[in-house]
Specification:
Blueprint (H helix, E strand, L loop, with lengths): L12 H17 L7 H22 L2 E5 L2 E5 L10
Antiparallel strand pairs: 1-2
Length: 82
């Protein structure tokens, strides 16, 4: 696996996070191809994981710290209603 070097100031973290939000929406609205049985189950499982990953990254707060992309995702459960 390669690395990305010298992204500099042109990298827009918020735009990247927005693209993940858009991907999550696209996964949710994607149609079901004509699959049956095990193939259908695998497709649905993959769709669920794709949505989870894209939605999680779409909720991230991103920054570049000392040249390192940092994505923070709050995985804590919401506070109970008072």
């Amino acid at each position: 696996m390669g690395t990305v070097r010298c992204m500099g100031d042109e990298f827009d973290v918020e735009a990247m996070v927005n693209r993940f939000r858009e991907r999550a929406t696209a996964v949710r609205s994607r149609g079901m191809p004509p699959l049956e049985g095990a193939d259908r189950r695998r497709f649905l499982d993959r769709m669920k994981v794709d949505y989870q990953d894209f939605a999680m990254l779409g909720d991230a707060t991103g920054s570049i710290e000392d040249g390192v992309l940092v994505l923070r995702v709050d995985l804590r459960p919401p506070p109970p209603d008072s």
